[in-house]
Amino acid sequence: MIPVALFTILSTPYIDLHSFLAALFWTWLHLLQFCVSNQSLHIEEDKLNKPWRPIPSSLIHISTTRQLRWLLLPACICLSVHYRITSAGVLLSLAFAAHNELGFGSHWLLRNACNAWGYAMFNAGAVGIANPEVLKDGRLFHSFVYNGLVIFTTIHAQDFRDVEGDKIIGRQTLPIVYPEGSRLAILVSMWGWTSGLIATCHHGIHAWLSLIFGAVGLVIGFRFYCFRSARDDRMSYTLYNLWLVWTQIVHLPA
């Protein structure tokens, strides 16, 4: 939620508290829909990778979770209609269903595409609630494209930590299909995006700040490549999310 919240604040020149809280609630409810949908499938994988989650830890029964999943879908659609962002809500829910129920999340290419699609719709929906007029700015469309491309080329950072569990259920994530190439790809793509965004979005970015973020992107990329235990990958993914926050907002229109 943090990247979406920052994107909404920084892309909206004038935003009142009520609109911002409404955007946050919409984002949270849709994120809940995704999590419930995702966690109610492939329980064996969660038992190994994330045993603390509600279903593996027996805090909620799977049948209850599936019922909640299909109750959240119309609730999210209705909320999107209420805020007049029906397209974003419907497309986001379709991304969830494609990733989870239709199994797109089991293949690295479709998985990355669903993630990029989802991030773009999260941003579009939240901004549309906070200030619909901002969506008419053509430059913001470029920001959606940038965000989608960054996610598509780097989001497999989340899959390194889950390799063992993903193998059990037959997922073909990038770290499983290309163990060495995927780590090299995250190193190159993180460094490339950091350098490219600094070069093309230099407005308002001080030289020292650019240098810091450039170094951070390179260090995190090298960390993924050099430190490969599950524990190291979890830490690297946490750092990746901090880097992702910056990449999501640096190219916003000045």
Automatic annotation (TrEMBL):
Cell compartments where the protein resides: Membrane
UniProt entry tagged with the keyword Transmembrane helix: yes
A Pfam cross-reference name: UbiA
One term under GO cellular component: membrane
Record keywords, A-Z: Membrane, Transmembrane, Transmembrane helix
Keyword Ligase included in the entry's annotation: no
GO molecular function: transferase activity, transferring alkyl or aryl (other than methyl) groups
Parts of the chain that traverse the membrane: 205-226
Topology term for the membrane: Multi-pass membrane protein
Main subcellular location of this protein, as a coarse class: membrane
UniProt cross-references to PANTHER family, sorted A to Z: CHLOROPHYLL SYNTHASE, CHLOROPHYLL SYNTHASE, CHLOROPLASTIC
UniProt protein name: UbiA prenyltransferase family
Organism: Lentinula guzmanii
